Amino acid sequence: MTLENPSLPNIWRQLLSVLGDLRLAIVLLLAIAVFSISGTVIEQGQSLAFYQSNYPEDPALFGFLSWKVLLTLELDHVYRTWWFLSILILFGSSLTACTFTRQFPALKAARRWTFYKEPRQFQKLALSAELETGNLNSLTTLLEKRRYKVFQEGDTLYARKGIIGRIGPIVVHASMLMILAGSIWGALTGFMAQEMVASGNTFQIKNIIDAGPLATPKMLKDWSVRVNRFWIDYTPEGGIDQFYSDLSVVDQAGKDVDQQTIYVNKPLRYRGVTIYQTDWGIAAVRVRLNNSPIFQIPMAQLDTQGKGRLWGTWIPTKPDMSQGASVLARDLQGTLLVYDAAGKLVSTVRPGMATQVNGVTLKVDDVIGSTGLQIKADPGIPLVYTGFGLLMLGVIMSYVSHSQIWALQKGDHFYVGGRTNRAQVAFEREVIEMLDQLSDQTPLPEVLPIAADSLVSQN
């Protein structure tokens, strides 16, 4: 014997009522907006040293936002936190509940036609009139010209148009659910990486700094990227105009499968992975000492205390490395500063030029630049974009007015009335125009007092 709990349906209905409450949806939407703004303002997925440097404890930003608070609240990866995803899921549940408890019933009621068989029923409508002339056939003709769908039964008539306006809110809710699903899926399966690669080098994406719990970066092992060349265009004043990276995607057999030149706002996309041009640097300098072979020495970025970017290296001028020269560079325009062991500026050189330092001829062959790449994968983006497209369509559909008209032929009297969910003034003009065409009397048929009061209250 099975005992059923009669309170369960009531609990279920109460839960749906709470979830479908517009006030709850507004609160959740505001929370999503606030945390999304925080995720935009606060840099996401950076290192601990970055947050300690930019969000110190003394003085803390706004008096409370230090790096400890930021990391404790997980504001360094807002979009992947359990609480942000929970808000998205709760908001999606609210939209779903509202759709099934309000929008679908409203659509079902709008599709169901009913006939008014008593004159008193017309008095409850927003606009109604009683004529001494007119008939259903004439009204049907006028309604069909205005794209109404007409239903007639005996001496009664019902007509409607704009049912798509009732479908629009459902499409809006469905599109928002699609956007939420895409956002959640992207947060769970997406990842972000950063690479600094010198010109001519080939790399596999490994330096992943942020990834969702379901991310599958194993797919990156099937291919690699080669930096064919990196260069910078400078303005006449010496400032950076744009920097470029010529990249090739290479499969496991070493064959090029794609090749593109990327720059800021023009990334490379391959197999759901997007590679952006975000930074640059100086990787190495190629030099020759006297008649020695050309050798390449790496350069490192120096700490200038925020006074610009500067790279430097030390080049030995004796085999036992007892003496050497320091070389500094600030950009890829080719000008390098050469200092001797005493720290004295010896010369400024460009690629192809030579200078004497510590009794040795130092010739600079080339300066090797490195490109800073940001790599992102977000499998939820197609779903989000599709959702936004449907959202715009649903909003347009929602602006279509759903208008209804009833008519009753009873003896020598002809009753007509109607209502609409929006564009009340336009609907009123349309109805009065049809009444004018139905009636041979002038002035126009008088609107019933109750209907007139209703119109005033609505306008």
Automatic annotation (TrEMBL):
Subunit structure, as described in the record: May interact with CcsA.
Family recorded in the similarity comment: Belongs to the Ccs1/CcsB family.
Topology of this chain in the membrane: Multi-pass membrane protein
Positions of the ResB-like domain: 22-293, 356-431
GO CC annotation terms, alphabetical: plasma membrane-derived thylakoid membrane
InterPro entries the UniProt entry points to: Cyt_c_bgen_Ccs1/CcsB/ResB (IPR023494), ResB-like_domain (IPR007816)
Compartments, as annotated in UniProt: Cellular thylakoid membrane; Membrane
Top-level taxonomy: Bacteria, Bacillati, Cyanobacteriota, Cyanophyceae, Coleofasciculales
Gene name as annotated: ccsB
Protein name according to UniProt: Cytochrome c biogenesis protein CcsB
Keywords: Cytochrome c-type biogenesis, Membrane, Thylakoid, Transmembrane, Transmembrane helix
Species of origin: Allocoleopsis franciscana PCC 7113
Summary of the function given for this chain in its UniProt record: Required during biogenesis of c-type cytochromes (cytochrome c6 and cytochrome f) at the step of heme attachment.
Transmembrane segments: 21-42, 82-101, 170-193
Biological process according to GO: cytochrome complex assembly
